[in-house]
Design brief:
205 residues; alpha+beta; 21% helix; Porin
């Protein structure tokens, strides 16, 4: 219950961050024609692919586009849950990306900076067959990190959009549990690396 409460709290903080940014922009642009659009996006291919392995994978998010400043504030969300004979795992990723388009409008290539939060819970068994023994693991951790990246966003006249990006950085907080997971070759440690390619969305005025 405490872990779920923490995840909900982080998500609420990201929502508040978007509202604070919007409020600041509204005050700053009170004397100009501020153009704001909001959008949602979703990765249907990931959901279908992981469902074939009886896992749950959701990748989506929502964005605020400020066309008079060539800026997008994006909030990607990833939920991953699965299990097999010897393990059960779940991951929750929340991020806030500041994207600045290098052209004269929202759309095209952009540079980005991101704040990331990750919560993970892994349960698995190690079968030391040569010792005829088992070792159980139950690991939980929270991590915060920063990233920088580049990407491209296409927005159609009918307000549908698609984008691709790559970003890299590192986590600055973690636990010894995270290092233990990393030592056996599973997600963990300080490295932060991600890509987006199959998300599709729609804009709302």
């Amino acid at each position: 219950m405490a872990q779920r409460s923490c995840v909900v709290l982080v998500f609420a903080l990201f929502l508040q961050l978007d509202n604070d940014i919007l409020a600041a922009r509204t005050v700053q642009d009170s004397s100009s024609d501020s153009q704001l659009s909001r959008g949602i996006e979703f990765n249907p291919a990931g959901l279908l692919l992981y469902s074939a392995m009886d896992d749950l994978f959701f990748s989506g998010g929502f964005s605020s586009f400020y066309s008079n400043r060539n800026i997008e504030i994006a909030f990607p969300i990833i939920v991953y849950r699965g299990d097999d004979e010897d393990s059960k795992y779940q991951e929750y990723h929340f991020a806030c990306h500041y994207r600045h388009f290098i052209g004269e409008k929202v759309g095209g290539f952009y540079f980005s900076g991101g704040l990331h939060y990750k919560y993970a819970h892994y349960r698995y068994n190690e079968n030391w067959w040569y010792f005829d023994s088992f070792e159980d693991h139950d690991i939980k951790f929270h991590k915060l990190g920063l990233s920088f990246g580049i990407g491209f966003r296409y927005i159609s006249k009918k307000r549908f959009f698609w984008g691709t990006s790559i970003f890299a950085g590192r986590y600055f907080t973690g636990t010894s549990d995270a290092e233990e997971i990393n030592s056996i070759g599973e997600p963990g440690g300080k490295l932060l690396l991600g890509t987006e390619i199959l998300k599709f969305g729609i804009l709302f005025k």
